[in-house]
Specification:
This protein has 337 residues and is mostly helical. Among the domains are: 97-243, no CATH class; 273-337. Helix content is 85%, strand content 0%. The chain has helices at residues 5-46, 53-90, 94-100, 107-128, 132-178, 183-193, 198-210, 215-225, 229-244, 248-297, 303-307, 309-333. It is elongated.
């Protein structure tokens, strides 16, 4: 049957195109499907199933959850870092130092006590050696130097006592959480059973919760009163656990183990550096011991140092060099962990 020249040429062109397309598909199809087929054959041969649509969705959801938790942890750590920087700025204030030393006195009472101490030392110095420069120096040291030194020693002593009992307090909290007690009840046990300063510090946190202060804010205030890295670790653990969840008892148990390891390391460093500290103490005290011995054997032998202008210059120069040497030795033998 003849349909006309134009219709016949059009039909012929369509048939040729279909034939060429079918041939191309037949030739190229194995190359496109080779990888998927090979993967399916490999999965069947190894006994593994191919990933279904549902498992793919679940894996993506789990990855999104991990990313969200990672971002929350990073945000918590950044927030703790900012709070630590703010705490370092406030650490030099007298009010904060009084709180860290455990003294419940006002700044005004501190300065009144310092002035009384300085006046008493200046009066004693005037009786022993009536020199206006010496009396002025003693007055300045008695008001601004000696009270600060006493406050610093009280602060350090309180922090050391807290650090010795802190790991045991965390163990008590861990056992309480494992037995089913809430965090607040576990802290109440520490507040009632532990001695100062651990017990009063946890009691402050518990009392703050009764007044509407959250647990994280209470721990942050504890860090302000006890500025130790170990207490900061507790603040980080509590902040992360409150935002991301997790097993708090396990985290506190790991923290307690870390604190005990740090304590052992500090004790080891102290024992190793004790020989250097003893040598520094002997070298620092040797000039004063010799001066005392010479004064007892021959009282007039060292009198030119105290009665002449050149002797005063020598004493001042010796004191400066002695102070420099003591500070250098102290810097060399003090190790921070």
């Amino acid at each position: 049957m003849f349909f006309g020249e134009d219709l016949s040429s059009t039909a012929f062109t369509i048939m040729v195109s279909l034939a060429v397309g079918g041939l191309a598909i037949a030739i190229l199809f194995p190359f496109f499907s080779n990888n998927n087929s090979a993967n399916r054959v490999k999965a069947i041969s190894t006994g593994k199933k191919t990933e279904s649509f549902g498992s793919s969705i679940r894996s993506r959801l789990s990855e999104d959850t991990k990313d969200t938790r990672r971002r929350q942890i990073q945000d918590s750590l950044k927030q703790v870092g900012k709070q630590e920087k703010e705490l370092k700025k406030r650490r030099n204030s007298l009010r904060v130092n009084l709180e860290q030393a455990g003294l419940e006195i006002s700044v005004k009472a501190y300065w009144v006590s310092a002035c009384i101490l300085g006046a008493g030392l200046a009066a004693l110095s005037f009786v022993v050696y009536p020199n206006i420069f010496v009396v002025t120096a003693v007055l300045f040291v008695g008001i601004f130097g000696l009270p600060r030194w006493i406050l610093k020693n009280m602060r350090t002593r309180r922090q050391n006592i807290f650090l010795n009992d802190f790991a045991d307090a965390l163990d008590v909290m861990t056992r309480g959480l494992k037995s089913g007690l809430p965090v607040t009840e576990a802290m109440k046990i520490i507040a009632t059973e532990s001695g100062p300063p651990v017990g009063p510090e946890f009691a402050e946190v518990v009392e703050g919760q009764r007044l509407g202060i959250s647990l994280e804010q209470g721990i942050e205030r504890m860090v302000e009163r006890i500025p130790l890295p170990e207490v900061n670790f507790l603040a980080i653990v509590m902040a992360i656990q409150s935002k991301t969840g997790g097993n708090l008892s396990e985290a506190l148990g790991n923290l307690s183990r870390v604190l005990r390891d740090r304590k052992k390391m500090k004790q080891k460093v102290q024992s190793v550096s004790q020989e250097a500290k003893s040598s520094a103490a002997i070298i620092g005290s040797l000039p004063f011991v010799l001066m005392g011995a010479l004064t007892m054997l021959n009282p007039t032998y060292l009198s030119p140092l105290f009665n002449t202008q050149m002797g005063h210059i020598l004493l001042i120069g010796s004191g400066i060099w002695m102070t420099t040497g003591v500070l250098v030795m102290r810097k060399m033998i003090n190790f921070q962990i």
